[in-house]
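Minutes, project check-in
Item: structure for the 126-residue chain
Input as provided by the requester:
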Amino acid sequence: MARVTFVFGILLVALGLIGFWGTGSIHYTALIPTWFGLALVAGGLLAISPSEGRRKLFMHINVTVGLIGLIGAVVEALRGYGHARSLGEDPDYIALAAKLTMAGLLLIYVNLCVRSFIKARKSRQE
């Protein structure tokens, strides 16, 4: 799972940079996925360890970072959409797409981590 974490981190970094450059490098909040991605890249690198305890610790930290990012992205997507609609305006579709993409990537990542944790626990019990 450490390599999967690293891949999802790279995808989030790319999403943030594309969003930032796509908005004309004006909106620094478009870089939020980049920071979550960098945290996952670092955590993924730290989780590549022969020590089972260290690997477990960093993978649990990584999935927590992913879950926080998922919740934040969903909340911000809903908040931004609702706020724009309450003003009678169209939402910023680029920002909305970036938030939903971040949420989708992190949903897949958290799901993969949880399945891996369940599989590891079942294999230890046998």
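Outcome recorded: Helices lie at 2-22, 32-47, 52-86, 93-125.
No further action items on this chain.
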